[in-house]
Amino acid sequence: MLALVAVLLVGALGTRLWFLQGVQSATFQLTLDAAKRREVTLPPERGRIFDSDGRILADNDRVLTVTAEWAVIRRNSSRAMLFERLSGWVKVPVADLEQRFQEGKDFFDPLLPMPLVEDVDEATVQNILERSEDFPGIDVVEQWRRVYPFAPLASHVVGYMGALDEDNIDEYLARGYNRNERVGQFGIEASMEAELHGTWGKQVWEIDAAGNTVRLLEEVEPVAGNDLQLSIDLDLQQYAEQALETKLKQRRDLPTDPKEADRAAQNPLDPKKENGERVYSSSEDFGMQEWIQYKAPAGSVVVLNHLNGQVLAMASYPTFDNRWFNAGISKEKFDQLFPQSDDPDKSILVNRAVQGRYNIGSTIKPFMAWSAMHSGLITAGDVYEDNGTYKLTSVDKEVCAEGVRCEFKNAVDPFGLPSRYGPVQLEDALAVSSDAFFYRLGEQFYILEGRRDELKADLMEFGFGADTGIDLPFEWDGRIPDDAIKEELVDIGVLAKGEAPRLVVGDLVQVAIGQGLFASTPLQLANAYAAIANRGFVMRPHIVKNIYAPLTPDRAGGFADLAAGTVVVSYETPEIKHQLQMPPEQYLPIIAGLTRVICPEYRERLESCGVVFPENRPRSTTGEKLFKDYPHDLLPIAGKTGTAQGAGQYPWNDSSAFGAFSLDPTQPYTVVAYLEKSGYGSKAAAPVVKCIFTALAEGLPGGTDEVLPAAPLELNSPYPAPPKELADQTCLGGYDASVSE
Amino acid sequence: MTSLLTRRPDSGLGNVRSSPSDPSRNIDWFLMFLQATLATIGCFVVYSASRTKQADPFQYVTRQVVFAFVAVVAMVIVMSVDYEMLRERARFLYGCTIMMLVLVVVAGTVSGGARLSFDLGPIKLQPAEFAKATVLLALAAYLSEDRSEEVSYPRFLGGLIMVGVPTALIIIQPDLGTASVMVAMAMGVLLVAGAKPKYIALITLMSVATVIAAVVSGVVNRYQLRRIEAFFDQNSTDAVLKDYIYQPRNAVRAIATGGVRGKGWLDGQMTNSRNDIPVQWADFPFSAVGEQFGLIGCAVILGLFVLMLLRIWRIAHLSKDMLGTYICAGVFTMILWQVFQNAAMTIGIMPVTGLPMPFISYGGSSLVTFFVLLALVQSVHMRRYR
Predict the structure, then answer these.
(1) What is the DSSP string of B75-105?
(2) Fewer CB within 10 Å, N or C, chain B?
């Protein structure tokens, strides 16, 4: 009987096995192939961005999105019908829906329903869902949308987000993103993507052959991204943006009267020629015009705290409203707002403060001066006779006669002749901006054994020629020319073919006044001035102050309650890269020179520190007239003008630079402004810096506009950002400085 | 085959001191070979089913090999002992077993809602597994005291109680699978001992009644019931039930898609890549064989088991006393039932229980137990001349 049972049991097994594996195998293989898993990633809520006071610069809104099942809209007939019915409810033309489908059909995640219309209002959703039998495959999901409550303020810093595109999609998919996600494309949104994004959750569904979900296998909740507190003070940011834009606008429309202190660029008749030719007759555009308005197309401002390296404000013009990037505008509208152009003056989507590639003109002089003293080339007391022109000593007269440039002139005075300053010491050379003094240094650095490398090393110590490492994307490295760099520039055709593929003496003479092949970003310049201001500490600038744990609570008035949040990572401690040696005999003459640029009265005070002045005091300094009405007692400052010559060396192509820093350690601000094609340093950049220091001295927001949340984005606006203006523009004025640089 | 049965003593040149009836010269090497083959196949199956599901692909197979060595040692020890001697120790072993079962119900490690094992560091000791051997021994010893051809009614009742107590304890754990093995074993032994059909019917009735009582009284966990529900409602859309359908349904898919020749070693879509069949290496190794080696592979495994059963059947006949016959009968039914139950749940003709497939499934307790059971059978074979 036991045997019988055994035979029966084994027989049952055998029969069933034969049936399964022999007969039904193919059928089961079909079901197996059809039974797939669908993994749906759940994007987390993105971290928010606050200014240093906790103002919410980037926030998330819940929006309702109408989605459509692929199975339904892939069939032409049902899609046409569906779009027809849907169009009226969601107020989107059928053609636009069709276009979105055509563009998105190969792009959106095929496993998720296609997002068809974003940001649909509650009533519409209600109507659609009530008629769900009319809308097969249509569903409504809640999604996050990025909003910028204070746009367009600090747009270049905060940045924007965008859909994945062909260039980056593989990289993001590899990092776990799904195709429908938007990622940071610019500014902090881009550079801090990893912190802001958070961790995905997921749902794993088993699906059958028809694509229906059978059951939920696994679910993991998403973790929201970290919040960021920036060091940006939005009050100051708004003020800096307004001052920059106002001044640029002023520079574009100047009187054409030689008696005016602020006037348009002049192209006078050439006194040496009698046929009515003008001095800059080689200019094809303006050859016959006497007055030429500055283009003043662009500029940037950086405000640093030079004791900790934090960026308090960073403005870049032309600016834009970062809400355009998720306003769902058409491509035509986008091209109208952000036209494609080869003209760098018109670029909007660059942060000139970290991406601008500029000659910085005479603002380089304090660093040249330090390097010359540091390397023992000169001492502060050495006197140089500046007679307006510097002739190279290292080049033979015959070579010079063959057309090689051997003579370098100071900037011209109002009479078209190079300014002469007579006997100058280093301090005076800085105060009056004697080019000849620095031309000589440039030549010395070139001809003396090993000094070229020393100069480059010194400038690099100040942070030129390498990115500062700030937490913003696309930062430019800057450029300090050497043989290799020049050869490369000749190779790629930036320099004319005739140029020697190695450094010649003229190159270093140009570097000495911040011209020629030397280039820097405004941020690098500000960081270098900060190193003088804090007496030698070169820091890595930061724009992110603290990283907070996710979901920092709100408090009233558009602020986050930072006190209730938890700091995860803090960048408040300064990140010092290295310290420069600045003994008093080198440091004080530089400070004295830069202080005299702003305020000649400070000379007496500084003499008590042991600085010796030459007997015959040179002519007035480059900034003293402008800064006459500046509140020196509230916030004493020192600074340096710079005028970078542009294409053709025409006056209307001069770019204006100014760097200044506070002498009061309780108010440790360093400010740099750079206004492209706007004229002399003292005329355009210096007034902007003056305004910012005035505002800092007298306190913000006193006398300035209150920072208000943005009005809704005007979708019909032709501007990338609405124009803005400084409420009180008196600080931009002042008296003309007679010396041009 | 007959030469094995009537093996002649050695010529005397090699082994003069050894008598032909010496136990060590009467090992059933064919049975040993079957057992070793199955255990080896088991290791490969465990490896193939678990390699992609752990950080270390060799984690389970390494442990399984270690278990096999332990099992061999246990086997050698049991084989070297005369089962007649075990008859005297049977009561003691039985007592120990009952105590262990009580202990595990009271203080065992809870896992999946049941107290099945003691956690001894890396090893999980399942007393129910060892109970199979000791209860069998005790029952066989008890029944063999009766010299009559047919087991008497009082002795039948005594045997029933003997099996009933540990079985009840195992149901309380609750482990219906092992309990069913105990019942099967009791039936097998009692059948061979000559129980009347009406007695057997009585056992069947009683076990059914016990199961119903256990279910009603709530001793049996919900999840065990779910498995049975799932078996009878395989297309259910109930969300909870779907979880219980998932594992056996995928096992059926795996084995069915293997076809006649299988998909090849480590080429199984379900076995070798995804985690479609949770704990496949312990619960559904037969599906791993089926997917990779198809009907041929399954037939080989079942064939080996059939040969093994035939071999045990033969030893039962050769045994010099009833004790040996009963032991063989018990081992026979246990292996038959477990192989059937495991294979049957894998191919969807029985509800899912946690019963492992002997020698193949991952698990130390099970492996050691079956090695010990076969050692008892060997012991019967070895000592058939004394």
Answers:
(1) HHHHHHS-HHHHHHHHHHHHHHHHHHHHHHH
(2) N
Q: Do A339 and A172 touch, CB atoms closer than 8 A?
A: no
- Which segment, A14-23, A268-277, A658-667, A724-733, is predicted with the most confidence on average? A658-667
Q: Alpha-carbon Rg of chain B, whole angstroms?
A: 21
A484 touches chain B (CB under 8 A): no
Residues in A closer than 8 angstroms to B333, CB to CB, are 2
Q: What is the mean pLDDT of residues A292-305?
A: 94
Distances in Å between the Cα of A33 and the Cα atoms of A27, A373, B244 are 10, 78, 21
- Beta carbons within 10 angstroms of residue B338's beta carbon: 26
pLDDT in tens, B310-361: 999 999 999 988 889 999 999 999 999 999 999 998 988 888 888 899 999 9
Q: Is A16 at the interface with chain B, CB within 8 A?
A: yes
Q: What's the first-to-final CA gap in chain A, in angstroms?
A: 116
Structure tokens given for A636: 């004493």
What pLDDT does residue A739 have?
A: 38
Alpha-carbon distance A170 to B104, whole Å?
55
Structure tokens at A584: 């008093």
Q: Which of A13, A19, A30, A39 to mutate to test the interface with B (most CBs of B within 10 A)?
A: A13
Residue matched to tokens 């033979």 = A396
Reported as a single tens digit per residue, the pLDDT across B252-286 is: 888 888 888 888 888 887 777 666 787 888 889 99
Residue environment code for A320-357, b if the CB has 16+ CB neighbours within 10 A, otherwise e? bbbbbbbeeeeeebeeebbeeeeeeeebbbbbbbbbbe
DSSP A31-53: HHHH-EEEEEEEPPPPPPEE-TT
Q: Looking at chain A, which residue has its C-alpha nearest residue B197?
A: A1
Strands, E, within A392-457: which ranges?
407-409, 422-424
Torsion of CA A400, A404, A407, A410, to 10 degrees: 180
Structure tokens at A295: 């283009």
Average pLDDT, chain A: 86
pLDDT score of A610: 45
Smallest CA-to-CA distance from A384 within A429, A446, A442 is with A429
Rounded CA-CA distance A317/A156 in Å is 9
Q: Radius of gyration of chain A from Cα atoms?
A: 33
Tokens 């601008």, located at residue? A356
Give the span between the Cα atoms of A650 and A51, in whole angstroms: 41
**Secondary element (H or E) of residue B185:** helix B176-192
Q: Which two tokens stand for residue B172?
A: 């309380």
Model confidence, pTM: 0.65
- At B6 the pLDDT is 53
If one counts every other C-beta atom within 10 angstroms of the C-beta of residue A671, the result is: 31
Do B225 and B207 form a contact (C-beta atoms < 8 A)? Answer: no
Q: Which residue has the higher pLDDT, B274 or A439?
A: A439
Mean pLDDT of A655-683: 94
How many other CB atoms sit within 10 Å of the CB of residue A84? 11
Q: Are A369 and A384 in contact (CB under 8 A)?
A: no
- A579 CB-near residues (< 8 Å, 6+ apart): A536, A537, A538
A9 touches chain B (CB under 8 A): yes
| A88 CB within 8 Å of a chain B CB | no
A741 has pLDDT over 70: no
Pick the closest to residue A327 from A740, A725, A739, A710 (CA basis): A710
Please state, as a whole number, how many other Cβ atoms lie within 10 Å of the Cβ of residue A293. 15
Tell me, what's the ipTM? 0.80
DSSP type of residue A418 = B
Q: Which amino acid is at A32?
A: L
Please say whether the dihedral angle defined by the alpha carbons of residues A47, A49, A54 and A55, taken in this order, is positive or negative.
Answer: negative
Q: How far is CA A496 from the centre of its chain?
A: 30
Measured CA to CA, the distance from residue A360 to residue B216 in angstroms comes to 90
Q: How many CB pairs under 8 A join A and B?
A: 86
